[in-house]
Amino acid sequence: MAGTASPLVDALGATSLSHAPVIESAGALVWRVRDGRLQVLLVHRPRYDDWSWPKGKLEAGESLATAAAREVAEETGKPVVLGLPLPGLQYLTPEGRVKRVHYWAARRARRKTDGRPLAARHPVQEPTADEVDDLAWLDADDAAGRLTRDADRGPLDALVAAHDAGRLTTHAVAIVRHGRAVPRSVWHGSEQDRPLTPAGYAQAAAAVPVLAAYGVDAAVSSRWERCATTVDPYVRAAGLRPEYSDNLTEAQHERSPARVAATVRDLLESGRSSVLCTHRPVLPTVLDVLGQHSRRAVADVLPQRDPFLEPGELLMAHVAESPKGPRVVAVEKVTPPVW
Description:
This protein is α/β, with parallel strands linked by helices. The chain has ten helices and 14 strands. The protein has two domains: 4-164, Alpha-Beta Complex (Nucleoside Triphosphate Pyrophosphohydrolase), CATH 3.90.79.10; 171-335, Phosphoglycerate mutase-like (Rossmann fold, 3-Layer(aba) Sandwich), CATH 3.40.50.1240. It has helices at 64-76, 111-119, 140-146, 153-164, 198-213, 225-238, 250-255, 257-270, 283-292, 296-299, and strands at residues 4-6, 22-34, 37-45, 50-52, 55-57, 80-92, 98-108, 134-139, 171-177, 218-222, 243-245, 274-278, 314-322, 325-335. Helix 1 crosses helix 5 and helix 5 crosses helix 6 (225-238). Residues 21-161 form the Nudix hydrolase domain. Keywords: Hydrolase. Belongs to the Nudix hydrolase family.
């Protein structure tokens, strides 16, 4: 089953044709600013003789975000870092299947500054001319006219609106609840040493390509074993120097929630894409800080009920700078696929 990545309320909604096979695909609107003008990257596909956004179908065991980053790299020859989620598309194919296309804003990755998350990704295939034979960077208005399908303008309109509102340049803060752990009832060691189960280790491994797709290059974790082990696969794959904190443990949180809040604020203000791994009882404090720094529309859809996140699940917060400081302008709940 493919991992999900949606702005908490699925932007595509449920298909009305529940009996029809569903094809999940993902892509991105790669953007840049030149001479003060927003530009986007279009691809030409000779098979369909159309201009569209780079995208493609998910591979087995792949998350939507991972597929989006991989497909853009395969079709354009350049890696990207995902940013804001954008409205997706859903339509019926001539074969009678429902195709769902999930989109993100994305920027070109830079080897100098994005080297660590790029190192954590799997190699991608080189572009082939039979799939994409031309690329074009166009001003947003010109791109709207070049697109072959009117429906493809929906994600572009959202991208332009985010740019005009100052919300397009973002960094990600991934909040992760540690993977599934051995139950307290059967663990006879200390609480801080309680380990992950085999399923928890699989969840930790599955998070690696997801975090890499969003350009995560810093890691902060509770020092307790089940959290440290959850971030370890990504730390190793990306070559990071993680920060392990007693403040993010359950015990220290009970004594001083303010220190947890300060850690979250530091990540929001850092400008670096990062991952924070902690425990279920700590999540209300984390979410409270996110809510204080969120647009109202975003704060209203943050998880409100225990357990807030399932074991191994991520909440991806997209943070933009504003005159009042960092603002969370979008959030996604991500469940990495585990096979």
